[in-house]
Amino acid sequence: MPERKQPPVSRDELNECRRCPLWRNATQGVPGAGAVHARIMLVGEQPGSQEDLQGSPFVGPAGHLLDEALQAAGLDRDKLFMTNAVKHFKFEWRGKRRLHKSPAQQEIEACNLWLERELEKVHPTVVVALGATAARAVLGRKSVTLAGMMETPVEHQGRLVIATYHPSFALRQRSDEARAAAFERIVRSLRAAARLARGVKTG
Ligand code: URA
């Protein structure tokens, strides 16, 4: 049976958070969700428009692609924990549409308290950072080289951190080939994370 316990960070706590200004325009804070003692934790950048409205991570288009990648990698979403480096949606209005805006370093740092709490409570063996923002947040560094971390996991605070493309990156690719290549890269990284979580060296 998949675990369904209290999440390490609650929505109420995030809705009261004033550590950065992103709460002002967002609908709600989006805490991490999933198995609270998962071996694998996936970290994205920030909630998108759908996540902001529904209050759960990875439920919009990027989440759907991620679900396909998880399935291709043989991973069960219910057994993972999914969260974001930043817990409120940052956007700008373009007509009637809310367009994603990348979070600033200060916003990532302000939100790190919540991510650290999730990492501490879930205590995963492997963290998959989806994109550079997530990798920076998980490692607490201002810059990271995503390519290197896709091939070789980094040991950090007793966990293995592996990086891959953010699913939105795959969705943004213009050609079918580029989209398929990015998707395959994500699947490979997820498979590597599964092996690492089982204690098998990847390479
Ligand atoms: N993109 C993210 O980084 N996280 C989500 O939850 C959704 C889209």
From TrEMBL:
UniProt GO molecular function = 4 iron, 4 sulfur cluster binding; deaminated base DNA N-glycosylase activity; metal ion binding
Q: Does the keyword Glycosyltransferase apply?
A: no
GO aspect biological process, one term: DNA repair
SUPFAM superfamilies, per database record: Uracil-DNA glycosylase-like
Uracil-DNA glycosylase-like domain: from which residue to which, for each copy?
A: 31-187
Q: Does the keyword Nuclease apply?
A: no
Q: Which Pfam families match?
A: UDG (PF03167)
What residue intervals traverse the membrane?
A: none
Q: Which domain of life is it from?
A: Bacteria
Which keywords appear in this protein's UniProt record, sorted alphabetically? 4Fe-4S, DNA damage, DNA repair, Hydrolase, Iron, Iron-sulfur, Metal-binding
Q: Which NCBIfam families match?
A: UDG_fam4 (TIGR00758), UDG_fam_dom (TIGR03914)
> Hey, which family's this protein in?
Belongs to the uracil-DNA glycosylase (UDG) superfamily. Type 4 (UDGa) family.
Q: What is this protein called?
A: Type-4 uracil-DNA glycosylase
In which organism is this protein found? Cupriavidus taiwanensis
